[in-house]
Amino acid sequence: MAISLVTTLLPNTFQPNGNQNHRTQSSGVSEDTVDLLDTVQVFDLNGNGIPISDLWEDRKAVIAFARHFGCVFCRKRADYLAAKKDVMDKSGVALVLIGPGSVEQAKTFAEQTKFKGEVYADPSHSSFEALRFVSGAATIFTPKAGLKLIQLYREGYRQDWKLSLEEDTVKRGGWQQGGILVAGPGKRNISYIHKDKEAGDDPEIEDILKACCS
After folding, report:
1. Is the confidence at residue 175, as pLDDT, over 70?
2. CA 43 to CA 51: how far, in whole Å?
3. C-alpha 195: how far from its chain's center?
4. Potential cystine with 200: which of 3, 73, 160, 167 (Cβ 3.0-4.6 Å)?
5. Is the pLDDT at 190 greater than 90, yes or no?
């Protein structure tokens, strides 16, 4: 079965009343997906539950979805986005990272990486399922992912195997892929989506900055 993978910059289409909560979605993110996201809850580092769409209801945000909190590729993604946080700050854009796992795993990730943005846990993986991010062994063991893994180890990045081998991650196989959204302000205002097709599939940072800060 062919897998449909998307990197989309969506046009700025608003209803005549200008209310961003009623933005017309393009084929990049369906209305059903937006409705489903409104039911998804994530947890901050204090364990407080937050509807995921609240993260961009009153602001624009870049939301990165990590494969899991021990993932070496995700540590690189965190640094790659945080390196442009000054640009995001000047534009009033928040930087957020969400990982499938527990609050404790999220805390460990935040402590280890010193990530400059906000970190949230999605223990149920509901946001990943709502956005239909791909998963499977075939998305891990690819030539491109292998080459990037070697590059990251040469740069000094390391997988946290303790986090990677915790029960929740192992139970789901560790095959989950993530992506990146630019969304808000307004719950229905999703202007950009990138879905990773394999491990380490980061989009060009210029595309993200164009979506969030231009």
Report:
1. yes
2. 9
3. 9
4. 73
5. yes
Distance CA 122, CA 69 (A): 11
Give residues with Cβ within 8 angstroms of 144, minimum separation 6.
198, 200, 201
CA nearest neighbour of 111 among 71, 69, 77: 69
Tokens 């979605």 belong to: 25
Span 61-67, mean pLDDT?
97
Length of the chain: 214
Look at residue 26 in the predicted model and tell me its pLDDT. Answer: 42
Cβ contacts of residue 49 below 8 Å, gap of 6+?
A: 41, 42, 43
The pair of structure tokens assigned to 144 is 């491109």
